[in-house]
Design brief:
Elements lengths: L16 E5 L2 E4 L4 E4 L2 H4 L8 H11 L12 H12 L5 E5 L2 H19 L7 E5 L8 H6 L3 H4 L9 E4 L4 H7 L4 E6 L15 H12 L2 E5 L24 E4 L10 E5 L1 H4 L15 H14 L4 H22 L4 E7 L2 E6 L3 H10 L2 E2 L1 E3 L3 E4 L7 H22 L1
This protein binds pyridoxal-5'-phosphate.
Pyridoxal-5'-phosphate binds next to helix 4.
Length: 396
């Protein structure tokens, strides 16, 4: 057998990194890379942010783990801050995005079945091109048939409709529908923002039919779009339940789901749990992330960096029509729609010292840390310009 000791589930780029600082990564071979992928939208405050490093180091010397059999003060503090800055009244902490999604789905079903006394309500309306994770239920909720291949049988209870189409969603509602689940802007699917009014329309639909509106803000949330949560850009579009992960730990694995009181009451002692979720290390880092993001002027800074970056990228699209054809997204969650294969664009960018992430729909995802300023944006423009020139030369 020649199977590698690490299971070969990823097509990895052959680079390893030694350290990171802000928007930059230093590889073991000495090369420096501008990191506009942040892992995949994870290191929201860049690498080795001094405030996060201090919070983690300080907590590491005191207490790592005590289990959820005891009070963890960091959970109360972080939950209260999330509640104070969102639609939600209550928070459950866990460890990964898929786990936050699973908890959200469990919560929605139990709310309908136990709190509302409607045991027939178990189905969830989900969208095409959606991505919600790699566990069985989140695979079933997601839009990728390929990801499900060979893993059946899938958990039941998901009805798929076209993302962005309110009419289709309405028609899909039955007596058994418990919830609607969407990403406010689809990430893996290709940075797909829905039409204006779609999220508000789903809110109204949920109210009309007594459904739980679940938003997967795992990629869009925690400042990525220039507001703490992406649905906050749209008036009257608040969910009942929201999953958060990626940026909330700034690179430390942690996640959460949040809910309105009416729905949250479905989870009473013993109904849900996790060993690692909400541990003191994660809570220390999560609170440190919010110290930075909730500071006066931080989101305005993200919005103004985004404005600058969008203008530069628009210039690049205009100058390189054989490589790039458009932009979509919001804030610092940007999809560069490619003409050349997105993998070729990413390879050329990497050769010019810049990292980004692929997505569906032949898109290069540009997901820089939220702390970028003019210097990083200048460097990105230079790298993408050179990458486009490289591809144009290769193509002749
Ligand atoms: C990354 C992601 C997930 C899955 O998160 P994991 O931590 O990998 O389980 C789910 N939904 C969205 C929108 C994501 O971007």
């Amino acid at each position: 057998m020649t199977i590698p000791a690490v299971m070969p589930t990823y097509a990895r780029v052959n680079i390893s990194f030694e350290r990171g600082e802000g928007a930059w990564l230093l590889a073991n071979d000495g090369r420096r890379y501008l990191d506009f992928g942040c892992g995949i939208a994870v290191t929201a405050l860049g690498h080795a942010h001094p405030h996060l490093v201090e919070a983690l180091q300080d907590q590491a010397g005191k207490l790592w783990h005590c289990s959820n059999l005891y009070e963890i003060p960091g959970q109360h503090k972080l939950a209260q801050r999330l509640v104070d800055n969102s639609f939600a009244d209550s928070v459950f902490f866990c460890n990964s995005g898929a786990e936050a999604m699973e908890g959200s789905l469990k919560l929605a079903r139990r709310y309908q079945q136990v709190v509302k006394g409607q045991p027939q309500k178990n189905r969830v309306i989900v969208a095409t091109e959606a991505f919600h994770g790699r566990t069985l239920a989140t695979l079933a909720a997601g839009g990728s048939e390929k990801y499900r291949q060979g893993f059946g049988p899938m958990p039941e209870g998901f009805d798929r409709v076209a993302f962005g189409n309110l009419n289709e969603a309405r028609v899909a509602v039955t007596e058994e529908t418990a919830a609607i689940l969407v990403e406010p802007i689809q990430g893996e699917g290709g940075i797909n923002p829905p039409p204006e009014g779609y999220l508000r329309g789903l809110r109204q639909m949920a109210d009309e039919f007594g459904l739980v509106l679940i938003m997967d803000e795992i990629q869009t949330g925690v400042g990525r779009t220039g507001k703490l949560f992406a649905h906050q850009w749209e008036e009257g579009a608040e969910p009942d339940v929201m999953a958060v992960a990626k940026g909330i730990g700034g690179g430390f694995p942690m996640a959460a789901f949040l809910a309105r009181e009416e729905v949250a009451q479905a989870l009473t002692p013993g109904t849900h749990g996790t060993t690692f979720g909400g541990n003191p290390l994660a809570m220390a880092v999560g609170n440190a992330v919010l110290d930075v993001m909730l500071a006066d002027g931080f989101m305005e800074g993200v919005q103004s960096a985004a404005q600058d970056l969008w203008a530069r990228l628009e210039g690049l699209v205009a100058r390189h029509p054989r490589v790039l054809k458009g932009l979509r997204g919001k804030g610092l969650m940007i999809g560069l729609v490619c003409v050349a294969p997105n993998t070729q664009v990413l390879d050329a960018m990497r050769a010019e010292g810049m990292l980004a992430v692929p997505a569906g729909g032949n898109v290069v995802r540009v997901l820089p840390p939220l702390i970028i300023g003019k210097a990083e944006i200048d460097a990105a423009e230079v790298a993408i310009e050179a990458a486009c020139a490289r591809i144009e030369k290769e193509e002749g």
